[in-house]
Structures are given as structure tokens and as C-alpha cells.
Amino acid sequence: MPQTIKDLAKGAILEMVRSVNAGTDRWKVLVVDTLTVKILSSACSLSDVTDEQVMIVESLEKTRQPMPDTDVLYFLQPTESSVDAMLMDFSGKPKYAGVHIFFTSRVADELISKMKRNAAFIGRVRALREVQLEFLAHESQAFLLNMPESFRDLYGSSPGAAPGTPPPHGMLNVAWENIALRLATTMITLNEFPTIRHMKGNQNSMSVATKVYDKLRDHKTQVPSWAPNSESPATLVIVDRSYDALAPLMHEYTYQAMVYDTLKQVLLNENDAVWSENRHLFISEAVEKVPA
Q: How far apart are CA 148 and CA 33, in angstroms?
């Protein structure tokens, strides 16, 4: 059976974890930031991770107890705030022994330089890798970019501007760049360099499509060993919300939607065979198949 996007994300995370102190019986600490904790939890259970000799999973943003004799695996988004918080762990007495860093996407040169300038930190670094994993594997056939602010950035007015005033180009460019980055890491995880289609004459979809292509082309140049699927490449279709303005206002009539509407607390996931098989069916079809 072909691997799903959830399988691929989980495999990438576990490969990352296993690579730290591989072939030894040494345990490690896993430190995540606000984005990577969501990436991790969307693809793996806690037991999946702790079974790989991870003694504890901790938040980068919270106060943590020093473990100076234990190696640490940082799984982080390559932002200045996350890098600064990581470096703070070594500003006084170092919190950890060896340091293994895995970033979700390409690291800016200035952040690499900042890490190199910290002598107390750089001497402990054992590995630094970019894993190209900046999306949430929400379901086996669905992923999220986790960008709730993108609608505001693409369509909202800038602060202080009159209502209806389009966002300045600089704000739009940042939004396009962030969306394209996350889509590109998704395609890389899927091992696809897709044919990219976009809405004709639409600035948002055209700009994101161009940036996704550029990022995939750059990745192929920087990582010559990357061999994306060439036999039957995927097609990535990028459209603006204006293409289907009614969809967000419509209510689905699937079994999944009904369960989420009517049950306050429920633990359902793809480990439940009945749920996986019937969740996307129309309600009237599902009630005939789901046991009472």
C-alpha cells in the first residue's frame, strides 16, 4: 500500500530522532517550539517518540531543568526567536551536553552566522540538518499549513489604512513567501516536483505558484541527490479563495462533520477502522454502515 502523507511525516520525524546517538543506549531530550510541537503531534504519538530513547519532550519557550550530561535534539522552525531561545540554553552553565539541531526548512545565513559566533554553543553541536517538514499531517490524505493569519495578510487592510485598502506589496510578499515555503516542504516530503497550475491573472495564486517552483528548483540544485517522482509527477493546483467564495460558508453533511457538531468530547483518529472508512460519507450513507 502506498505511503500516506501522515506515514511520510511520521517516518521523517522518527528517522530524525533515531539518528541522534544511533547505535548506543544513550537517552536524549527532545525540545520543540510552538510550530514543531504541532508538526510532531500531528504525525506521531508520544509513545512513538519515547520508544526511540527520548526521555522527555519539552517546550523551547518554557523554563526547563538543566540536564548537563544528556544530549539534546532541537526540532525547530528556523526563526530568529527560536534560535535565540536555543542559544540562551548555553548563555551560562550549559543545559545539555551534545547538541543535535533539526530545522523544519532552510536556515538563513545570518542565523547560521549567529550560531557560529556563540563559542559556548557551537563547540557542542554534533549535527545540524534541514528536514523540510513545515506542515501538519492532519489526516492520511489531508495536510494543513497552520497559517490562520494568512487570510488577513492577503486580504486585510494594513493597520491605519482605510477599510478596503489593499495590503502593501511588502506585506503580501511575506505572506506569499511563507505559504510557498510550507507548500514546498510538503512537496519535498511527498518526493514530488509537481506540475504547478494557478489561476490566470490572479496575483495571489500566481505569486505563490512562482515561489513554490523557485523553492523546489533551488532545493534540487542544493541537494543533487534528491530524486523526485518522475514517472507520474503530481499536479499542484493553486487557487485564490475568490475561486470558490461559498465553500467556507457551507456546512458539510458528512459523518465526520456530524460527529464534530454533536459530540463535545471525542477521541477519534485513523487508528479506528470504522471512523477511517466512513468519516467522509454522506450522513445517510454512514448511518447504514456504522454500528449503532
A: 17
